[in-house]
Every structure is written in structure tokens, then in C-alpha cells.
Specification:
By secondary structure, the chain is α+β, with helices and mostly antiparallel strands. The protein is built from two helices and five strands, in the order αβββαββ.
């Protein structure tokens, strides 16, 4: 029993520390991650898109939610932006819903 408690405690601490760690694909400020095109992504609503099995939320966007006035137009606008290839996004964080938050930049 004595050996079990310290081992259990170590495993519990290690697990709780990994929950607080950021995703490796979500880099913070000052990272060398480049802005990337997400052509082929599918707009979910005006500020969220789906790409290769993951959801991405555009930082500092606040588009109408599905079912609200203007939501369909905002979704179409985001899809056009994605399809154009003239915009790039860089991962910066994770939000409380598990989406990768991305910073947007128009390509020159």
C-alpha cells in the first residue's frame, strides 16, 4: 500500500500537468510559425472553419452564430476568403471549446 500511494500521486500530478499544456500546433507570440493557407477548408460559420479534422476559430472575429440574422452571409464570406487563397492563418492558442485560435493576415 505504501508504494501504491506515491506512484498514484506521481501519475495524477503528471496527468494534471499535461492537461494545462498548450497544443504543439498552437504557438504563441514570437514563434517562427508561418501564416498558412487553409484552401479546401469548410466554413462552419462566419468565424470558424473545419480543416483536416480540426476546428479553427479566427482571432478577434465576432460573426453572427448560425440561426442569427446575417449568419449565412458571414459563412459565405468566410468560405470565399478561404477559397481565394489570399489569406493566411497562424495558430496562436486553444479556446475553451478545443478549437485552435488562428491569427489572420492577408497575403500580399
Amino acid at each position: 500500500m505504501r508504494k501504491f500511494i506515491p506512484t498514484f500521486f506521481i501519475i495524477l500530478v503528471a496527468f494534471s500537468l499535461t492537461l494545462g499544456m498548450p497544443d504543439a500546433s498552437a504557438r504563441g507570440k514570437g514563434s517562427s510559425a508561418r501564416y498558412k493557407s487553409f484552401r479546401g477548408a469548410k466554413a462552419i460559420d462566419g468565424d470558424t472553419f473545419f480543416y483536416k479534422g480540426k476546428r479553427f476559430r479566427i482571432q478577434q472575429y465576432n460573426a453572427p452564430e448560425l440561426g442569427e440574422p446575417g449568419a449565412r452571409q458571414a459563412t459565405r464570406d468566410l468560405q470565399r476568403k478561404i477559397d481565394s487563397g489570399r489569406y493566411g492563418w497562424k495558430p496562436v492558442a486553444k479556446d475553451v471549446y478545443g478549437r485552435t485560435v488562428v491569427k489572420e493576415r492577408k497575403k500580399r
